[in-house]
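Q: Got a minute? One more chain.
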Amino acid sequence: MGCLIGRVRTFATHPVVLVSVAALLFVTGFAVAVWVDHRESRSAAIESEATRLDLVASLTAHEIQSVAPWESPTPGQLRAVRLLPQTAAARGGAAYVSDHQGFIVASEPATSPRALSFGDVLGDASHRMTGAASGIMTATLRDGTPVLAATRDLASGQLLMVQPLSAVAAEAPFMRGSPAFVLLVSVGCLGLAAGCVGFARSARSAGRLCTRLTRRLDASLVQGRCGVFDWDVTNARVSWSASMYQLLGYQPRGEHLTPEEVAAILQPEEGCILAMVRAAAASPASRIDHEMKARTAAGQWLWLRIKAEVVRDLLDASQHIVGFAVDITEERGQAARRADVDLRLREAVETLSEAFVLYDAEDRLVLCNSKFRNLHGLPADLARPGTTRRDITAAMLPRVTEKPLAGQHLDLPGTRRVETQLPDGRWVQVNERRTRDGGIVSVETDVSALKRSEAKLRERERRLKGSVRQAETAAQHYAALAERSLEENQAKTEFLARMSHELRTPLNAILGFADMMRQEILGPLGCPRYAEYSHDIHASGHKLLEVIDGILQMSRIESGRITFSPQLTRIEVAIESALATMGPELVARDISVAVDVATPVLLQADRTALHDILVQLLRNSVRFTQVGGTVRICARTAGERLNLYVEDAGAGIDPEVLPRLGKPFGQTEAEYCRSGGGTGLGLAIAKGLAELHGGRIRIRSERGVGTIVLVHLPVTQPAANDRQVERGVEAHRHVLVAAE
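A: Always. Here it is, folded:
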């Protein structure tokens, strides 16, 4: 494009062109001047001839009146008029005389055409002249000859004299000293000079306009990542626009490039750019539309799309290939990414466990997986993109039955959810939905196994209903047995409570008297053996009292007759209270206790219950810890909960025994505790009291390593009273009083 605009600019400012234009203007001005001068000279000659003819007509009329004053003159008398030979014969004119009726009675020369009246001599069109010769008119004879005509009235009629205009024109002087010619030539020269100056200015303005247009066009091409080129095949040179140089990062190398330089930059995928140009030049009607790589000045590669056609220069008949190049590097990258995404999509669709098919807005196949083809027995050549949905449906296996299914989004247009059965007995669930571009996506699932499972489930349900009826009968029987067992268990609990109460009364007396004897309050016993016996009686009584207290507390927990009064308590205070209670046992076995409370914790708990939990866990740990050992107590907060850890390095517990720990009156706990003494109710009591707080106990132990007991308690007790109401016990109202 820049080359074409440069040619227009060169053409507009070339000296030969300017001279040619100036000469053309001069010749045109000279021709106009000649034509104007000739027109003015002819008009002046006609006016002079009209004046002369008017004078001759007046003199001739006077002469005729002298020869024949009252009658019409005869031809001889008319010839006798001395002016006629000079006016008529010498100049080719004629004179006619008519009578009063208008008929011509004489004419000169006699060879004039015969006419009866003046109307036979003159045509219909006649015009009277203005100016000095006001009695003269221009007319046309019957044979078409233009003439000047003069008429005069006579006593016997009229005189008509005619003079042809051709004779007048032949005698007119041609530019003989005409000032108009000089004026026109001068004006023509001045016009020629002014035209040359104006044309030069127009050429410069056109050049500046072409320059601005070239810059704007190059700027537009740079923004569009385009470039324009002109390959002169005849002269073997290539012209690039500024945008083409900027696109590839090169500096302009003169006005033209050689084809070899261009071939080193542009490299098609197949062949050579020079061979491509030669092939296009050999076929002028062909067009070039190729994508090729281009090496930039920085050594990188760009992808360009070249579109060009063959044109022929009208000035020098040279052959050119003119076109443009567009940077398509980004488009090719996007196409590669789209192809990669499409490949991944196809692989993902192929890995689906369901049959998948996608149609476009015109019901043509876009994509389907092998499971769809195998499900419907479609050949591979039919399941190709572009196949109509009608053809695919016609090739599919016929459907035995079809029923709609309920589901979400079924109110959307183009949404369909059905269940169909194929001739081979398989069941297929079809879910179709319309896409935003008007296509249809369908996912089909083989639900034959599900249908078989549903049939089996229905059969099992039928059998289960029969079993349920049998179970209901058995449940009623077992419920009666459970109710009876519950009543028996309740009776056992009440019996144990009463028995414990009854045992505590005489036991208190035994402990009291044994303590008096041991301390010899009333005097010496006499024999040292009695003091030893009284000490054994007191120790055995205390142990028996602990057993009775444990049984009594466990019975209260099971029956729900226990006071639960949560109060704000510091966990470190509760630990110190429990250690004070266990102090004698700790000293007797020389066992130390390590307390680890990271931060002071204030929790809402029943102080007595919390104290009993810690005492029961410490007692178990002390009993199974070797003499001189250590028991560890830790307290940690976990959100809104408190974790208490009691850890010992005792004998440990077998894994198969752990699930059965914490059951009241169980033999397993008794066996676990039997080596250290006790009834085995410690963990059961601690578990019951922890559950009363809404907590739980977990035990982790390893044989020969030790045991860790975790007590997980809530920090607050907002529903303590509600829980007591559910158990049928109002807080602070039912209190079991045991006499000491």
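A: Residues 358 and 367 are 5 Å apart (CA to CA).
Q: Perfect, thanks.
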